[in-house]
Each structure stands twice: as structure tokens, then as C-alpha cells.
């Protein structure tokens, strides 16, 4: 079964209409997997998924992860709430209303998350857009000298770096479960075979063997190149949207939004098959 996706940006991002993610057969699942690999980011509209439905869909795509920072006691543990909402004065989810800088999800794990899906339950009329950049196409378009320079480099990532840069607090137990991870700065996609830049402005502490200051200069140069308009798509959310992205080929960021607008997203992370999880 072929599934047609409308391209939303020059090199990546596909929008798929006419699919009900709560009723997929195996052929439709395979078509979604193929489209996801080809487009790196997929956008679906008008979906009706409760937490069980979201986890069922995720399980069709791969092994579902429990997020390092999961702290829910009610609801599905596979589903992380991303929200600024509060109940009895306590945040019900993660990440508040602040801007999120260009980053990659859980790059700080030895086996980072392959894909993330975000499903919009409540959206804001202002702000809160989620931006994606195509790190594969950006890598192949690097100026030759920069491409030669990054060849063979390895980058060191940690959740503690994100704590420092973004102010997300880790518990001691979480810190121990996620020590530093070292991955190639240019990663070969384990399924697509495409090479892509692989770093996160929030989590990449340094390039192995370089000072933090020099590392940040280089990362910022790569970030400026990779987030030029021709490599970027910005998603403006509607209720019922589901966006699925490939963390091995894209970075993302979020615009801030006014805190008096409630925003609620349900989020699920998926792994690559076991033998393909460690970046190479
Ligand atoms: C995330 C994330 C962006 C958003 O959940 O990993 O980056 O728009 N969310 O909330
Ligand atoms: Mn993220």
C-alpha cells in the first residue's frame, strides 16, 4: 500500500491525509514506516487517540520507551505529558512554556531514542510552534572544509549539560542512569544509510578532545548552517495533530508561549531495533 505524503519543506517533512491512526492494518503500518524514513518528519491531522491508542500506534512502529524523567503515577507510563498546566499548584507535565533551543531527544543515552511522537490535546493560539531541521541534507550541503573538519569527530552528551543550560533538574537516580554518552558527530542513519550531523545545543557538552568554548563555537557554526530556512519546517499545531520525527536525522526546537494559555501534548518515544540502537 503506497501512502502519499505532501512535502511541507524542500527536503523533508511529509503531511499525510486520510489516515485514522487508531485503525491501522499491517500494510498501512508498513506504509507509514516507509514514509517516515523517507520524510524524516510526518504530520497527521484530526486524530482521536487516547493514551492507550497512542501507545498502540507507537508499538506498531517499534519498541516503546519509558522516558528517563517519567514521574507519572496515573495514566500510561509510556506517555510523557508535555505541558505548562498545573493541578493543585503542581505542573502536570514537563517543559513548561519556555523556549526550547535546537535539540535532539535523549541524545545523552548510550542508546538514544530513535523517534518521538507528539500528539496535541490542547494548543495555544499564540507561540508554541515546533520547528524541525533536516540534518542529513544540511550535512551533505556543508562547505567542503567544514565537512572535512567534522569527519571522525566524536561528541560528548549529557543530561546534566541540559540541566545546566536549560534548568531541567535531574534526580540523583536519573543522573546515574544517564552518565555521559559519546557518539559520532556525523551519524550514519541505521535504516536509511544517510549521513547526518548529530548533536544537540542543549545536551552536547563538548567535542571529544576540544575545550567547551571551542566546541560551542563549532556547534554553533554547524547549528547556523543546519537551521538555514531551506532546511527547516515550523509546525503550527491544531488539536488532533500528531507529529512523528526521526531523532537520527533531525533536530527540533520550540517557540515559547504565554503561560496563561494551557498547552497539553502527549509524547511517546520509540527505539530502533536492538542491534541498531547505538549510533555509528
Ligand atoms: C519534546 C519537545 C516540543 C514541543 O517533547 O521533546 O521537544 O513543542 N517538545 O513541546
Ligand atoms: Mn524534544
Would you summarize the structure shown here?
The protein is of the alpha+beta class. It has 7 helices and 20 strands.
Give the topology.
Layout: E1 6-7, E2 14-16, H1 26-39, E3 41-44, H2 51-61, E4 63-64, E5 80-83, E6 86-87, E7 90-91, E8 94-95, E9 100-103, E10 115-122, E11 130-134, H3 135-140, H4 144-150, E12 154-157, H5 159-166, H6 172-177, E13 181-184, E14 186-188, E15 195-197, E16 204-207, H7 212-226, E17 232-235, E18 242-246, E19 250-254, E20 264-271
Parallel strand pairs: 2-3, 5-8
Antiparallel strand pairs: 1-2, 3-18, 4-20, 5-20, 6-7, 9-19, 10-18, 10-20, 11-17, 11-19, 12-13, 12-16, 14-15
Bound molecules: N-oxalylglycine and manganese (II) ion.
What does this molecule look like?
- With 280 residues, the chain is of the alpha+beta class.
- It has a single domain (6-276), classed as Clavaminate synthase-like (Double-stranded beta-helix, 4-Layer Sandwich), CATH 3.60.130.10.
- The chain contains seven helices and 20 strands.
- It has helices spanning 26-39, 51-61, 135-140, 144-150, 159-166, 172-177, 212-226, and strands spanning 6-7, 14-16, 41-44, 63-64, 80-83, 86-87, 90-91, 94-95, 100-103, 115-122, 130-134, 154-157, 181-184, 186-188, 195-197, 204-207, 232-235, 242-246, 250-254, 264-271.
- The strands form five sheets. Strands 1, 2, 3, 4, 5, 8, 10, 18 and 20 form a nine-stranded mixed β-sheet that branches. Strands 9-19-11-17 form a four-stranded antiparallel β-sheet. Strands 13-12-16 form a three-stranded antiparallel β-sheet.
- Strand 14 and strand 15 form a beta hairpin.
- The two termini are 32 Å apart.
- The structure holds N-oxalylglycine (OGA) and manganese (II) ion (MN).
- N-oxalylglycine (OGA) binds next to strand 10, strand 19 and strand 20.
- Residues 82, 95, 100, 105, 116, 118, 130, 252, 254, 265, 267 line the site of N-oxalylglycine (OGA).
